[in-house]
């Protein structure tokens, strides 16, 4: 063999090997990038980056947490007594207030700080939210540190208000529960239909019907999720609004219906594979003992295919959990704890899709969205591995 | 007591109805989109720019953008995916490493598309500095369809009997020669079917390109791979949910949805046709 040909051979085979590692590399890179950005959230201060909070130097309040600060600035807490200080009215102040009264538009710190200091000195009840450049000296004002955002803020927090100022709220609980609610409802709707259709397809349908239905189901799988979302938006949402007499048709139920339709191909295809995997000998043995075809399906085929059907269910949930566009378009996107299926909810993927465009790169909001991505990644990864184990276990038994 | 026969009849009727219900749902969705969208589609719709806040004009830039994204992503994913499939099937066989890679590939295929969007934004848009561009969007979409292409390549190669390989080796051909001259050409039609299906997948995805490639509106067609583009699925999303005159844009939304559906229908028909074609050929052999 000439050396050029040998070189070509080694190059090509080297390329094959490299390509073989690409998917593993991508999975590792996804983990690295997602988790690095996501867990950066817990290194982000609870107050907006570049800003600070201070109170009058003689204010006795020990510390505040981010939730209290938010409620103070929302006007829900009005007395220092309520947060552990001496009784006295709270006067929330933002630096913008200095510039609104038609006063000087001079924003040079050298001229702003004295004005802020004077204001704080004569207002004992003040809590001031200021740009870091404008923070006054510690003799006049005591700086409050809210610390960093903690995992419990994120995972158990009930408020998702990333744009709240001075302290944005990143409580993911409503989003996590919203995702679970919509996905589980979807799978409950899709399972009877999907498994029924799979049994029909594998046990009852004639060859011609099968040849016709299989591509149909593939087609259902091929329709883009925006088209499903659009269909849900213009057909299902008004339908549900009318049926249940709701103020808006965009609700968890609408999302579940759309997701159920979208999960059907996954469930049908996998469940059908599982039922067809039950050996012919077992069916024939059952029929030979005098069982009807229905009894055979019930007592032989379904138990034999149960792990495959379970895997189909799990993968169906996985698809529903990760689905973005369709859900974004039909669930109404209210980031509140879901109370019923008929209210608007917001799921994790929909939140990422709706907000990433507005979140400044590297900020707390951006990181919180990446952390949501981590949750999504971890959950779907676990679901896929579980399904893989289930099918792997069922295989040797069936052969 | 209900007789066994009656029970069976009831059960079978139920399943038959459930099976037909699935077909009916598909028929409902397709029928609705086609019925409403057909009126919106004409030559002008396909060949002009949107006007008057998306309520008038056509979707040319979105079609062109989607075309670029499809070409770009498949130009990356196809060679890499086919080579990866060859490596897994022909070089690793059923060794543990092949199983690990297979698990990884399956996992990659199961990751939600929005996570690809996040990753693409972090890696291609920011770390590599591609910005929001055709390049960044194509790379992200390429990662998304890679598992599909790898799997179809692997399956296509698996379907080839080992006699072919053994025969070639017995005639003195090397391993690589056997792959390039014997196995790959025979497997190619099936691999192409996988490629066609990937086109359908890529052209309909929105979430991965949301933050890596798309623009709400573009005054002219993109001139290079670092330009932003409009894309059909994103266009449908924005005109269906936002904008100043959602009701006014509805006919255009139906039209856009129909164009997307037609792409998917065409892709599926083409794939079925290729498969049928292969079926005939192998029977003749």
Set out the fold topology.
The complex is a heterodimer of chains A (399) and B (285).
Chain A (H helix, E strand, L loop, with lengths): L2 H37 L11 E6 L9 H8 L17 E4 L1 H5 L8 H14 L3 E6 L9 E4 L6 H6 L3 E2 L7 E2 L2 H32 L2 H16 L2 H20 L7 H25 L3 H9 L4 H30 L2 H6 L17 H8 L8 H35 L1
Parallel strand pairs in A: 2-3
Antiparallel strand pairs in A: 1-3, 1-4, 5-6
Helix pairs in contact in A: 1-14, 6-9, 6-11, 7-9, 8-9, 9-11, 10-11, 11-14, 13-14
Chain B lengths: L3 H34 L5 H5 L2 E2 L4 E2 L2 H33 L3 H15 L2 H15 L6 H25 L3 H9 L4 H30 L27 H10 L4 H39 L1
Antiparallel strand pairs in B: 1-2
Helix pairs in contact in B: 1-10, 3-6, 3-8, 3-9, 4-6, 5-6, 6-8, 7-8, 8-10, 9-10
Task: Explain briefly what this protein structure is.
The complex is a heterodimer of chains A (399) and B (285). Chain A is of the alpha+beta class and 399 residues long.
Provide keyphrases for this structure.
heterodimer, A: 399 residues, alpha+beta, D-Maltodextrin-Binding Protein, domain 2, MetI-like fold, 2 domains, four-stranded mixed β-sheet, two-stranded antiparallel ribbon, B: 285 residues, mainly alpha, 10 helices, 2 strands, 75% helix, globular
Describe it:
The complex is a heterodimer of chains A (399) and B (285). In chain A, 63% of the residues lie in helices and 6% in strands. Chain A is of the alpha+beta class and 399 residues long. Chain A folds into 2 domains: 51-147, Periplasmic binding protein-like II (D-Maltodextrin-Binding Protein, domain 2, 3-Layer(aba) Sandwich); 173-398, MetI-like fold (Orthogonal Bundle). In chain A, the strands form 2 sheets. Chain A has a 4-stranded mixed beta sheet. In chain A, strands 5-6 form a two-stranded antiparallel sheet. In chain A, strand 5 and strand 6 form a beta hairpin. Chain A is elongated, with a radius of gyration of 29 Å. The relative contact order of chain A is 0.11. With 285 residues, chain B is mainly alpha-helical. Chain B has a domain at 61-239: MetI-like fold. Helix content of chain B is 75%, strand content 1%. The interface between A and B is large, with 86 and 85 residues.
